[in-house]
Predict the structure.
Amino acid sequence: MSWETVIGLEIHAQLSTKSKLFSGGSTEFGAESNTHVDLVDMGLPGVLPVANKEAFYKAIRFGLATGAKINQTSSFDRKNYFYPDLPKGYQITQMTKPIVEKGSIKILVDDSEKIINITRAHLEEDAGKSIHDLFEGETGVDLNRAGTPLLEIVSEPEISNAKEAVAYFKAIRQLVTFLDICDGNMAQGSMRCDVNVSVKKTDASELGTRAELKNINSFKFIEKAINYEIDRQIRLLESGESVVQETRLYDSEKNETRSMRSKEEANDYRYFPCPDLLPVVISDKELMEIKENLPELPEEKENRYIKEIGLDESEAKIISSSKTMANMFEDASSKTNNAKLVANWLVGDISALLNRDNIEIDESNLSAENFGKLIGRISDNTISGKIAKSVLEEVWENGSDVDEIIESKGLIQIQDESLLEEIANKVIETNPDQVSAYKNGKDKLFGFFVGQVMKETQGKANPKSVNEILKKILS
Amino acid sequence: MTIKYKTIKEIKKMISSKVISNKEIVQEVYKLIKDNNHLNAFITLNEETSINKAEELDNKASDLPLAGIPIAQKDLFCTKGLRTTCGSKILENFIPPYSATVIENLEDAGCISVGKTNMDEFAMGSSNETSNFGNVYNPWGDNLVPGGSSGGSASAVAAGIVPGASGTDTGGSIRQPASLCGITGLKPTYGRVSRWGMIAFASSLDQAGPMARTAEDCALLLNEMCSHDIKDTTSLDEHIPNFEDNLNQSLQGKKIGVVQDLDLSSLDNEVIKVYEDSLKEFVSLGADLVDISLPNLSLSVPTYYVVAPAECSSNLSRFDGVKFGRRSANPKDLEELYTKTRSEGFGDEVKRRILIGSYVLSAGYYDAYYKKAQQVRRLIKNDFDEAFSGVDVIMTPTTRGPAFDIGSKGSDPIQMYLEDLFTISSNLAGLPAMSLPNGNLDNKPIGLQIIGNFLDESSILNFAHMYQTRTNWHLLTPEGEKK
Amino acid sequence: MDKKTVTTISYLSRLKIDGEKEDKIIKDLSNIIEFVDQLNDADTSEVEPLANPLEKTAKTRSDEVTAKNLKNELLEIAPSSNEDYFLVPRVVE
């Protein structure tokens, strides 16, 4: 008898607004502790929340891009519980009337497509951070993050295995970054994920009891945690025991899931409408504006790159799949008229460097401007492709200007035909043995002559010209 | 020249005709406070700042509408740099780094906040017997309650210590003490006055308002208290009239709703007579009495005692000893920190209401209690909407009787809850309502409640002021009638 | 309203009722619940709940950072803090 897995994901994406969901506190990451805490974020007596419209706009973009229903009138509820990083003793969230309901997204697993339905996406405020390891016997609380807007995206329990879960998470991440609503930075916690996992016998009609794996931040860990949990549950059930409905944490070092304090389950959140916040209404006009200004999504970009720019399919696919790559491609292309060459380099040399250094393109020292210049200088024959590689290395190291590098290192390609002829002739004269060997059939020696000319010119000779000139002389 | 028992208007005249200096006024206030220490009306005094402000005004006169007027501020409003306790142990040393908008508005209008008045803890109570800082006494007797929760403010005004005070009203906490202390107090339309910096009890019911000796003074204070505050999204963005404009309008042909469903049978005959005499007075002023029905009125107290505790149980969760306020000593772990801090810091009434609130919101009970109560709330509001289509104001007694003895309501909380029988419904509907003195039984004052339509404080003030031009109840003091 | 219920809601509210006060609280709460049960008399079928007396919708704010750095003031009024954090007894996850 075989087992089936049922998985649902709850993804919390931090919306990239400048200020918080209910206050004018800054959402900037990495600031010194407790410096971005507004009176409202603190939950001091008498303070009141005021909703940030931009958060709604970003949430709506997500709804539109997933074909979801947008609730133009949405309201807020309070979720009541106690925790040190939850200043008010309740979180303001949207339980009854979320801004977005019922959408879907396409995922790709091993070349096959599957549609995963999204139950809802709602706005809520993030909590602060509890820091457990700094002090003996104490926990420190940093409220900088408290009040940051989150979009909680809940999938239907339609995911069947760890690979699909990762594909789904990746698809959502790609979507939110392309929509410019979340920076997708997993390391900084911009996207966190809770996974609900249960198993059942294939022929069983009812779902099994599920366990919730909390707060997993990396694709690798999601896959491992899910697989561990599936095993654990199957082993339990096969030995006649039952699965407890509980929250579990994933320990990446031990590669296991562990039950959290059971008191979590005693929590009755006592949701009720937040009396301080009247319902928020998005007008038809605002909705139309958001629709019209929706950023271009990967599939659209891919099609445009192929049809309008003439990129080949694989290049188009690679570049359009990452927002940062797509941005770089589009920016750099606008600075030169050789988009195809930009694409080549992006997919080739630059991708290699990105992989080597394990960074995203927007974390590199290469600006779109400079990249455009580099491609421009190749296109206008100022430098050869080979020289360009070394220029790129230099730019990559320290972001220096392409033209300055070419200038200071004297890398300008030698185009002067008469000069090249002179040098080529000199090479021919000083290598008579190789010349006769070549003329006697050793064709491979052509490369030797090219190499010699290049050596004489410190690699700056225009390879095409050198080839043509040598061919002429040696014929 | 004394300011004792003087109205704001009278004190303004004294200042402008220079028969008294601003400093002398403030100094006298503090002397009166000391002389009346037994009333326990104040929790924190603001002497140094107040004297300085007064001296400044003596050096350079100001034409601000409340320049130099000493006002007592209920200790529920956050005052920057000045201790704000909300009558609770859990905030016994809380010094807010910000002021409530109401405080700023009043101070921007020139008034001098002389101190923070005592109150029922977290505004929960109708007798000012639940304060961590001791009971407040009604100046009309030796052992009488002043009413609550704005007991300190009411007592201070009634004793003539200050001409005006700020109060808050969630179920009657301005009107009921005004009635028991023989002063005039107004709860504005919900949303007229910003709730920013006002420590929240029940967010959809709380409203700040003025307490003074006359309707005229209430109008003066209300003019300054009201504002549209972008920091409070429940603050109204409606035109704010000058509340003094219509005070003297004739009542000829105006309609007073008399509630048929009001069960007056539990009231003493003399209380009923006082009420009926007031209605007669209004008739002689030209108004007509119209029978109206508020069929769901009797459910207002149970509705309130589901909604208010539910909201407060959530609003008071922030008092957890983590970021501000009192924390219990040496908690061994987080759970103990929460539980000990809150159990030690909150009084019994507050605890009761938090527990009821958690109960009515809990899984399985939400629909039966909270949702049900909100539905009944809508019925009550609809009743008023219907009634106001035919009348200008509605009148009822404010309280079931005059002030009672401290400790006499015994240990049954419901007895105390029924004190708010007449006042609660206007909070549920968000309507403005006022209490003004309309009688005196055995040297104990009693009040008349005037309820107005949404945004119609002007009509209430008009009726009240005209009544006060014809009657002397508002001139009575514990020491006899004012000359 | 029995002891078990009171224990549960006390825990949810992080309140501890002392032994001797426990009976009174159970009695008080029972009476209050009985009192509010009157609400069942009302016919509320098809009635929309009223959460806030203002029948209007919320004003929102534009996405601007308006807050100042209040770190010192906030940590100063805290019951327990160091120069950087609010402090509570160690939380074990």
The mean pLDDT of chain B is 96. Chain B has one domain: 8-254+389-481. The longest strand of chain B covers residues 433-440. Chain B touches chain A at residues 77-78, 84, 86, 91, 94, 96-98, 100, 195-200, 202-204, 230-234, 310-311, 313-314, 317-320, 322-324, 334, 338, 358, 361-363, 366, 370 (CB under 8 Å).
